[in-house]
Sequence to fold (45 residues):
Amino acid sequence: MGFYAGTAEISVLIFLVIFGNLNNTISNTLCQTFHPFRKAEIPRI
Fold:
């Protein structure tokens, strides 16, 4: 039980790290590509 729980937690952490990196890359790309539109629609805090 502990082994499976630990493996699941590690898998989730790895997934979150990979997804976070992809999300940052996509956000940066969108900011560079649609910067005027994003700046007009979504004010940065």
Observations:
- The chain has a mean pLDDT of 75.
- The chain has two helices and no strands.
- Residues 10 and 36 are 39 Å apart (CA to CA).
